[in-house]
Design a protein that fits this description.
This protein is an alpha+beta fold and about 140 residues long. The chain contains one helix and eleven strands.
Length: about 140
């Protein structure tokens, strides 16, 4: 009888633990913060916006495009970032390295290259001031 009670308790505990894991909210894939937004006084209609992207270990962003006018220059501030633009190969960029994206480029992969360490990048956008939505997911 004791064995049956222990087996039942273990089984119930396993089910409850699995259910709890399923109902926990997913951790955010990336934390994105606009750190500056300035109109360019010598280029009417254009702005420069700085966006800090922070990935936890194993974090990533969904495939996306940017505002149609956006030219982006990104610099890795911490860790390593795996990036793929358009149909080019995925590359890993380490702290201090950078890459750019032209208007209309598709960003298929943007992810922390490490499953154990965080990573950060600063993306500087030169964009039409009227463009308020900087990033849109790619249709699946």
């Amino acid at each position: 009888m004791l064995r049956l009670l222990i087996a039942t308790a273990v089984c119930a505990s396993s089910v409850l633990t699995a259910h709890a894991a399923e109902t926990q909210p997913a951790a955010p894939l990336a934390k994105v913060t606009v750190v500056f937004d300035h109109a360019l006084p010598n280029v009417p209609g254009k702005s420069m916006k700085g966006v800090l992207v922070e990935y936890g270990p194993g974090g990533s962003s969904p495939a996306h495009i940017h505002a149609p006018s956006a030219f982006i220059y990104a610099t890795v501030l911490e860790g390593a970032i795996r990036s793929q633009v358009n149909d080019g190969p995925a590359k890993v960029f380490h702290k201090g390295e950078n890459f750019s994206e032209k208007p209309g480029d598709r960003h298929g992969v943007s992810a922390n290259a490490s499953d154990t360490e965080p990573a950060k990048l600063l993306a500087v956008f030169v964009v039409d001031t009227a463009d308020k939505e900087l990033t849109m997911p790619l249709p699946k």
